[in-house]
Design goal:
alpha+beta; 20 helices
Length: 637
Amino acid sequence: MTQTSMVEKYEQMPNTTTTPRMSAPAMPTKSLDALYRQPLAAKRTGALYGAFPYPTKISPDAIALYIAAHTKPGDTVFDGFGGSGTTGLAALLCERPTEELRAEAIRLGLDVQWGARNAVLYELGALASFVGRTLTNPPDPATFRKAADDVLAAGEREDGWMYEAHDPSGAKGSLRHLIWSDELRCPGCHSSITLWDACVSLDPAKISSTFSCPKCGHKTQRDDAQRVIVQEQDDVLGEKRALRGRAMARVYGSTGKQRWSRPATTADLMLLKKIEAEPIPSCVPQALIPWGDLYRKGYHHGITHVHHFYTRRNLIVFARMWERVETYSGALREGLRFWLLSYNAAHGTIMTRVVGKSGQKDFVVTSAQPGVLYVSGLPVEKNFFAGLRRKLTTISQAFETIHGGRGKVEVVHGSSCSVALPTGSIDYVFTDPPFGANIPYAELSFINEAWLKAFTDRTDEAIVSPDQGKAIDEYRELLTRSFSEARRILKPSGKATMVFHSSSADVWNALQRAYQDAGFDVEYAGVLDKKQGSFKQVTAEGAVRGDPVLMLGPRREAEVRIENNTGADDCVWTIAAALYQAATAAHDPAEATAQRLYSRLVTHFLSHHQQVPLNADAFYRWFAEQKQPGVLCRAGD
């Protein structure tokens, strides 16, 4: 088949933004094309986005465009997978759109009426529902800021000594962060050697895969050196436990405006001894971790309870801050809790880590990897007070953005498989369902939920999880129940927009069957261009760049069928080649990437009631083999 004939074929067949066949859309086709045909950017910046770390969330500004285009002021939006509340935030932003949001609507040619919308969010997760409820119904910003400043000042005054550190000249300063190092057993001399001493070099910063013993000179692969396991008294549980041995590797601090770093000293060890004499606050949760799909025998050795994710210093400091916050009440207490938890798991635990970037003299300190509970061999202990002070500015700005509006957001902590709303009461649905086995939200949230003393009931968690005994069929059934409720409460003329991400054809096909069995079908389809992905979206084999976004409408039984992908006319590569040709003709490099082409393929098949025929990684391998993309089509594929 020639390039010309394939392009002509593509131009003749319905594109991935298929015009609805059942009924006229609620907005002009031009507006639908603007929303769904071109990738809509979803930037991961701003106070609302950065207020609380939560995996796979979408920019509320991007969602606000969909809501504004599909609804009018006073309408009510529903999200059955509310997550951290971004759909609710987006509904509230429609009342006070930023200049950037207004400009984007004008650029896209959207005829929108800005004004207050309402939202009802259902969220199964205990942490996520707390985050969404607090962020969409924040305390008075001025009152919150004063209370937070008071709490922080009290913490620094009473416990700031725990972060004291002296600079290389001996002058008193404060700790910014401390890199700890796992201890390894040298296979040659059997000495205990830190990972830092055996594998790390600075200027440039590098972690070698070769273990080189500084005592005997023995060299081997790093993985061949066994971790040292030690016994330690656990003051929370009142018993001894076995854990990975660690030692201080390097201290980073500041004296005035001068920043410095140095190796650990005797003074640092003496400070740790002093901290060991401090009692553990009674508010520290004695929470046994219900390990599941994220457990790894190696780096989770000895981590059985929530407090094992902390150094003793940070456990004491955070717990005492928690006690101070608990003296407040109502929305103010919830706002202060929100502030503490926003920094806690991602920055206050030993999951915080360093990364070595090319050409950098020293390591870059970052947060915990999103989407996993990974503990590296070089965990980082950060200064809680410094981090909370930085976080306070972002959260205050977020509260100021939302507080005082007329729109109402209700966040229900419960399963969207059973929604307590009247039939036909919702004007529009926007949702971002869980992506199969991609993120075990309940397991990830357990650390923060332990402090809230509120835990997720995982019975209706829509997930593919070997640990929970949920395969693809159980996942599909839970999605079907949720989508059926969304269809029931949606007005007959209402639409639903769904963002979804998966590299698995089986997951896509389960999703398709779920929304069709619930009474929906695809009317328009496009791509939401997230500027950054979660850890798993970036690193997983077959990761997809750009999440397909589907506009769903009510289906008619006679018109809906799932077709088999057979015959030469449905050759995957023919369709991909046509998409590639269209992208190159439009001089759009992003559209010509394998990742974007796979997203477009997915939306093509879903729009044509066909099953997605292959996984992303298989498509990427196939694409890489083509010396001239757009020319070859393998017969039978």
